């Protein structure tokens, strides 16, 4: 956690869906706040942070959709009494990995470290 964001392979070590979801969305929230200057505070939810980053960065619609999917599942797991397991654990982890990959690519591009740009 922290600056060394986790990867999907480390997320799959968790046997409990609650721990998997909370750890992944905590890392997502940290990444959005610290690296993309998303607002923070008790009244600012993850959907609000996603909206902020969506408006300031050129994120793909697919990534935004996946982030909202992750957060919606988190909210269901935490707030709905009868929702106690992920419908697709591997799909959740893969969605997080895809989101994390695009966000890290945006950071790389911002710092001029786009590996697809080669100067000869």
Which short descriptors sum up this protein?
single chain, 5 helices, 120 residues
Overall description:
This protein starts with 7 loop residues before the first helix and ends in a 10-residue tail after the last helix. Helices cover 63% and strands 0% of the residues. α2 (17-36) packs parallel to α5 (89-110). The chain is an all-alpha fold and 120 residues long. It has helices at residues 8-11, 17-36, 46-56, 61-79, 89-110. It contains five helices and no strands.
Mean pLDDT: 86
| Whole-angstrom Rg | 15 Å
Largest sheet: none
Helical run tally: 5
* Spatial shape: globular
User: What is the total tally of β strands?
Assistant: 0
Weakly predicted, low-confidence segments:
none
Class derived from helix and strand content: mainly alpha
Order of helices and strands: HHHHH
- The percentage of residues in β strands lies in under 5%
- The end-to-end distance, rounded to whole angstroms, is 37 Å
What does this entry show, briefly?
This protein has 120 residues and is an all-alpha fold. The chain contains 5 helices and no strands.
Blueprint of the fold:
Blueprint: H1 8-11, H2 17-36, H3 46-56, H4 61-79, H5 89-110
């Amino acid at each position: 956690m922290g600056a060394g964001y986790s990867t999907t392979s480390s997320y799959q070590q968790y046997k409990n869906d609650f721990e998997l979801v909370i750890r992944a969305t905590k890392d997502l929230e940290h990444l959005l706040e610290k690296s993309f200057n998303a607002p923070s505070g008790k009244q600012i939810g993850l959907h609000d942070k996603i909206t902020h980053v969506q408006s300031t960065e050129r994120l793909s619609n697919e990534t935004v959709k996946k982030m909202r999917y992750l957060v919606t599942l988190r909210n269901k797991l935490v707030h709905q009494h009868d929702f106690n397991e992920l419908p697709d654990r591997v799909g959740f982890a893969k969605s997080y990995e895809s989101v994390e990959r695009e966000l890290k690519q945006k950071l790389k591009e911002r710092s001029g470290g786009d590996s697809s740009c080669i100067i000869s």
